[in-house]
Design brief:
heterodimer, A: mainly alpha, 0% strand, flat, B: mainly alpha, MetI-like fold, globular
Chain lengths: 229, 231
């Protein structure tokens, strides 16, 4: 192991790690916003409301993220309508493509978490709210969603960590996030073991920090106090 | 849209077959590693427990893609030295075996947790009953604990297999001609990226549905004789 090489390229790797965090943060936050209506519709009692979110979730959970990235980055260029459209400056930029693909991907997973969480809210609590005269919308907003947020939080933290690791795929569409940066450095130094090892340590450190953050959030939201019904 | 896929149909089919082989080989390696990891984690020896912990934490904290790249590019020097030592100087790790090693390693790390949970779900009394009957420790493991553990572990392992199936696409990055890469090759000459990546997407969806069906069969088989409680 040549430790001095790792130290020398540390600033560049940090730069990559920063981009990784940026991609993941935007994807999981915007993904959450998309996933909330999606998950609510998925938990609906009417089949025609369920059908669309179901097929969205089925497609995005059933195919690899790598493929989704390629579909957005390379695939859309097949259509002249897209190339002449107003969004083309964004859709040919790997940064935006990675964000779009990752957000849509994670939204499908988070929607499934939200569906599970909504369905896990004890029916007695929903009935209690309704019998107190709350409307359906009020029940959703004041009772079901806050309750579901706490039920789904541990699963959401898992998803964030999975996305952190999945973000390494953005390197395949030329983005210089942590893995991409590592590959670029290796192309110059020919030291795959050292540099990938260092990148791996960065990922481990980021995972560790995220786990701590979510642990703090779970304490803050008193998730454990609500588990025993 | 052209329905014979510009003559790339057979190539995509061949890619699908390689994807299936890759997934099954990684599954076999991952199950062994996962079982070993779970036994290590639940063993009475502290060193083994520490090893199991280190394995599952380290591997799960690093992206699968990084493992694929690390094993494929990182092993070059080591494998060459090994080759020279045993008299095959041009020995190298193929993309397929690097993929199996990387994906098996990752599957094993997650499977460790699934198996551990399942092992802990077996009542202690069963093990003690085995001891009281004079069975040896390996016999208790293979005849009493493992057969019961499967039933509990299968749903978790099934989820992991679905993830593994999709992770096989990562091995295309180091040049293995599986579905993803055959689609890429088709794209370079046909200039129809959306069409071919969509075809690949439907192949993956098909494989997912197929493995769901097979899993359902296994789950049913493992659960025969058990009545689901009305919860």
């Amino acid at each position: 192991m040549k430790w001095d090489v790792i130290v020398k390229w540390l600033p560049k790797l940090l730069e990559g790690a920063y981009l990784t965090l940026e991609l993941v943060a935007i994807a999981v936050l915007v993904g959450l916003l998309i996933a909330i209506p999606l998950g609510m519709a998925r938990a609906s009692r009417h089949w025609y409301v369920r059908a669309l979110p179901f097929s969205y979730i089925f497609f995005f959970r059933g195919t690899p993220l790598l493929l989704q990235l390629f579909l957005v980055y390379y695939g859309l260029a097949q259509f002249d309508a897209v190339k002449q459209g107003p969004l083309w400056p964004y859709l040919r930029d790997p940064y935006w493509c990675a964000l779009i693909a990752m957000t849509m991907h994670t939204a499908a997973y988070i929607a499934e978490i939200i569906r599970g969480a909504i369905q896990a809210v004890p029916p007695g609590e929903v009935e209690a709210a309704r019998s107190l005269g709350m409307s359906r919308a009020q029940t959703m907003w004041h009772i079901i969603l806050p309750r579901a947020a706490r039920i789904g939080l541990p699963a959401y933290s898992n998803e964030v960590i999975l996305m952190l690791k999945a973000s390494s795929l953005a390197s395949t569409i030329t983005l210089l996030e942590l893995t991409g940066m590592a590959r670029t450095i290796i192309a110059r130094t020919y030291l795959p073991v050292e540099i990938f090892f260092a990148a791996g340590l960065f990922y481990l450190a980021m995972t560790f920090i995220l786990v701590q953050v979510f642990r703090w959030l779970e304490r803050k939201l008193r998730v454990d106090a609500l588990q025993g019904r | 849209m052209n329905f014979d896929l510009y003559g790339f149909g057979p190539a995509l089919l061949a890619g699908t077959w390689i994807t299936i082989q890759l997934a099954l080989c990684s599954l076999a390696l991952g199950l062994c590693l996962g079982l070993a990891g779970a036994l290590a984690k639940t063993s009475p020896y502290r060193t083994l427990r520490w090893l199991g912990d280190a394995y599952s934490t380290m591997v799960r904290g690093v992206p699968e893609l990084l493992w694929v790249l690390l094993i494929y590019y990182g092993s070059v020097g080591f494998v060459r030295e090994l080759g020279e030592a045993i008299g095959y100087p041009e020995l190298e790790l193929s993309a397929f075996s690097a993929g199996v090693l990387a994906l098996g390693l990752c599957f094993g790390a997650y499977a460790t947790e699934v198996f551990r949970g399942a092992l802990l779900a077996i009542p202690r009394g069963h093990r003690e009953a085995g001891l009281a009957l004079g069975l040896s420790r390996p016999r208790i493991l293979f005849r009493l604990v493992l057969p019961q553990m499967w039933r509990i572990a299968i749903p978790g392992l099934g989820n992991l297999f679905m993830i593994l199936m999709k992770d096989t696409a990562l091995v295309s990055v180091v040049g293995l001609d599986e579905v993803m890469r055959s689609a890429q090759v088709a794209v370079t000459s046909s200039k129809q990226p959306f069409t071919f990546f969509m075809v690949a997407a439907f192949i993956y969806l098909g494989l997912t549905v197929l493995s769901m069906l097979i899993l359902h069969f296994f789950e049913k088989r493992a659960n025969r004789g058990f009545v689901r409680s009305a919860a």
